Amino acid sequence: MASKELARRFTSMFGAQPTIFSAPGRVNLIGEHTDYNEGFVMPSAIGLRTRVAISRRPERKLLIRSQHFPESFEFDLDDLPQQATGAWCDYVLGIAVVLQQTGHAPQGANLLVHSEIPIGAGLSSSAAIEVASALALMSLNGTVLPLAEVAKLCQHTENAFIGARVGIMDQFVACLGKAGHALLLDCRSLDFELISIPDTVRMVVCNTMVKHQHASGEYNQRRKECEEGVRILAGWYPGIRALRDISLHQLVQHSQDLPETIYKRCRHVVEENERVRESARCLRAGDLSGFGKLMRESHRSLRDLYEVSCRELDIMVELAEGLPGYHGGRMTGGGFGGCTLNLVEETEAEAFADRISVRYQQAVGIKPDVYICSAAEGAKAELNRAG
Ligand code: GLA
């Protein structure tokens, strides 16, 4: 839904003209499960966006509504719940709570949310609603923060209020993604480089339409396993703080000293960090087949070493092989369902989308949603009351 239509609905709902902020969903080209290991990632923002329309209201209350759910939620700003309520509004509420805790107390407001990003598909709909809500609430009290700080505030909300121990990748690219570019991010320093993606390729996103129940439990389990790896390896390398600090050579030397599962997790992270740096070199040089090869390796590693893929993702990745214009592909995001990302020549993208859709339906019996994406712009103000 375009901003103008959302503004029209907002006005008929609340009788006021809104300001609208939006933030995008994302795909991760490469660098999976490396962000919370202080490593490297390379996501892009995509054209599916979440919009949050906002206007001031005189009472010290927040009224939160969505175009997708019937309920409306009202909270007293002087008595905000300090814990998640379990409802969708938690993403907006959590931002308000964290803004208050960090000295940027929000004003009374009406908010209306609309999202184009499918929920639970691994395209970071939660980071998008957090970032758009943060910009919206900050706009009313004149808070201006650098976008990297907004990203950190949103990640903190997700960690401390929602209770998901995610890394910084999704919120960061939702804030700072750039049209036509991949964002190479060092998750320790937050230094980043925007690398141009040739206009001749598209990112074809294929949704397996499954999300396995154990996804968030397994995510936290992987984080623990990585921490355990660091703890054991620090016995030999006392200076290390995260798997980021270990080279493949150092890890292999201690393969016998780590429990097998921990070793596999560490090996994925260490090699994946190397793949991100290598794929950045490929992208800078316009070497898409080199990039595609690294994407395939990343998928295999996520399947065999990190064990976060699933049957449907593996099938979707295999079905892409041999299709015209295909450079490479992999699962994207946390895993256990959600989407694959495929780099495909622009001239072949439509045909690729049709064919993979038919093939997946034949193999799994589910019709996938397929999106042909280009790298899009990060968070922005879309419509202010004057416009
Ligand atoms: C989820 C998290 C990210 C990142 C990925 C895996 O998307 O939100 O922080 O850890 O999983 O790469």
Secondary structure class reads alpha+beta
Kindly report how far apart the N and C termini lie: 17 Å
Poorly predicted parts: none
In DSSP terms (H or I, runs of 4 or more residues), the helix count works out at: 11
The fold-level CATH name of the largest domain is Ribosomal Protein S5, domain 2
As a whole number of angstroms, the C-alpha radius of gyration is 21 Å
Structural features, described:
This protein has helices spanning 3-14, 90-101, 125-141, 147-162, 169-176, 215-233, 248-253, 260-284, 288-304, 311-320, 349-364, and strands at residues 19-30, 40-56, 61-66, 72-76, 109-115, 181-186, 192-196, 201-211, 326-331, 337-345, 369-373, 380-383. The radius of gyration is 21 Å and the shape is globular. Helix 4 (147-162) runs antiparallel to helix 5 (169-176). It is built from 11 helices and 12 strands. The protein has 2 domains: 3-196 and 379-383, Ribosomal Protein S5, domain 2 (2-Layer Sandwich); 201-373, GHMP kinase, C-terminal domain (Alpha-Beta Plaits, 2-Layer Sandwich), CATH 3.30.70.890. It is α+β, with helices and mostly antiparallel strands and 387 residues long. The chain is 41% helix and 24% strand. The chain starts with a helix and ends with a strand. Bound molecules: alpha-D-galactopyranose. Alpha-D-galactopyranose binds next to helix 5. Alpha-D-galactopyranose binds at residues 32-33, 35-36, 166-167, 169-170, 333-334.
